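We emphasize that the prediction below concerns an isolated chain of 113 residues; any contacts that depend on oligomerization or on bound cofactors are therefore not represented. The input was used exactly as deposited, without trimming of termini.
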Amino acid sequence: MSPITSHVLDTALGRPARDLALRVELQNADGSWRTLAQAKTNQDGRVTDLLPTGTLARGRYRLLFDTAAYHRATGQPVFYPEVTIVFEIAAEGEHYHIPLLLSPFGYSTYRGS
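Result of the prediction step, given as a token string:
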């Protein structure tokens, strides 16, 4: 399993957010961002294969979720066209699960397990 995973739930529709595009990026020493991987959520709203096992390094990462395309595809209004979650990895050997609870007019996240 990838050292970084995500699960997106659409709280407005009461179901997993299927086919939601996201990407994971790592911040470089100069402050710029480098894309490491891109994926779409599966039928359960999950992404479990972003990065190969053992590839996680310490640093600042961000997940970017293309919520505009997802909301349009599900017939919902677009207020937040993108959700960006920035987080820091201090322990390379751990698993980082970052869920996203999503609706057209709000979102929430936390570090899961």
